[in-house]
Design a protein that fits this description.
It is built from ten helices and 14 strands. It is of the alpha/beta class. It folds into two domains: 2-123 and 312-325, NAD(P)-binding Rossmann-like Domain (Rossmann fold, 3-Layer(aba) Sandwich); 127-306, Dihydrodipicolinate Reductase, domain 2 (2-Layer Sandwich). It has a six-stranded parallel β-sheet with strand order 2-1-5-6-8-7, sandwiched between helices. Helix 1 (11-22) crosses helix 10 (309-325), helix 5 (126-142) runs parallel beside helix 7 and helix 5 (126-142) packs across helix 10. The radius of gyration is 20 Å and the shape is globular.
């Protein structure tokens, strides 16, 4: 089993290497891949150093699986070449997510739609992944009508550049800016570019991806995405209106039994999910579960997850694990 990691020198790429190792994915040969300026650099996998190679050389190596985290333009250009060579590409960029011919996969929700013919598979946006992992089991039971979500997203979502700006500001030194405003001791209600409807691209990703992953265009979604001065882990305040009535006890029981979800919800003991606790973990943490008292059949939840892991690298590796288990690669 040859596995290529495209973008192996970036934050998500390095996390992919760590997750492959931690989960003991059946890798016989790891192929780290990056841009020409990074070719020849070394990355460590299972205690050994491996030299970074070019995209061109990686295609020729014909890996069984290629995990992409190198940006949308690279994915659009190179994923088809890998696919033509027989490689199954799992892409972390936004390039293929809304392509009607490509599957958008969160294993706990819709891995069952994958077939051997799927050679380019899209990994969803980090904020969408954690939300649908928590909400899908509730949707299966009560049927979601509407979702209102506000996010609190860490600077690591912008990669090393975002983390660098926050730390530079914290230390009082000048450096490269990832954001149009100061981020340390501040929050910025602006993630990705603004669109014609005055929502950001990140907000519309959550709207459109949720419907595609859940397989239900009738779900109404509205989002406000916010960057916060946290180094790792995204948090979300989610308000969900259902078609059917629920009890809080049943909701908690469903969440506690759901794959990939950990329920941390004991308000009397100040026990609820926080990004500092989720960092380095693969699960989606849910707490502050309570009924919306302003209207019927509506629930409030607080959802937290490590955006570099379950929000990106781990989800991609879990897709690869499913493919191997089902004999699809």
């Amino acid at each position: 089993m040859k596995v290529a990691v495209v973008g192996a020198t970036g934050l998500v790429g390095r996390t992919m290497l760590n997750v492959l190792q931690e989960r003991d994915f059946p890798v016989d040969s790891i192929i780290p891949v990056a841009s020409e300026k990074s070719v020849g650099m070394e990355v460590t996998f299972k205690g050994k150093n491996h030299k970074v190679i070019s995209l061109h050389d990686a295609v020729k190596a014909k890996p069984e699986i290629a995990l992409f985290s190198a940006g949308g333009s690279v994915s659009l250009e190179w994923a088809p070449y890998f696919a033509e060579a027989g490689t199954t590409v799992i892409d972390n960029s936004s390039a293929w997510r809304m392509d009607k011919t490509k599957k958008l996969i969160v294993p706990e929700v819709n891995a069952g739609v994958l077939t051997k013919a799927d050679k380019i598979i899209a990994n969803p946006n980090c904020s969408t992944i954690q939300m649908v992992v928590a909400l899908f089991p509730l949707h299966s039971r009560y049927k979601i009508r509407r979702i209102v979500v506000s996010t609190y997203q860490s600077v690591s979502g912008t990669g090393q550049k975002g983390v660098g700006q926050m730390m530079d500001e914290r230390l009082g030194v000048s450096g490269v800016k990832a954001y149009p405003h100061k981020i340390d001791m501040n929050v910025i209600p602006h993630i990705d570019v603004f669109l014609e409807n005055d929502y950001t691209k990140e907000e519309m990703k959550m709207v459109n991806e949720t419907k595609k992953i859940m397989g239900d265009d009738s779900i109404r979604v509205t989002a406000t995405t916010v960057r916060v001065p946290v180094s790792g882990g995204h948090s979300e305040a989610v308000n969900v209106e259902f078609e059917n009535e629920f009890s809080i006890a049943d909701v908690k029981q469903i969440l506690a039994a759901s794959p990939g979800v950990i329920l941390n919800d004991v308000p009397s003991k100040n026990f609820y999910p926080m990004p500092i606790d989720a960092e380095g973990r693969d699960e989606v943490f849910v707490g502050r579960v309570r009924r919306d008292e302003s209207q019927p059949k509506t629930l409030n939840l607080w959802i937290v997850s490590d955006n570099l892991r379950k929000g990106a690298a781990t989800n991609a590796v879990q897709i690869a694990e499913y493919l191997v288990k089902q004999g699809l690669v």
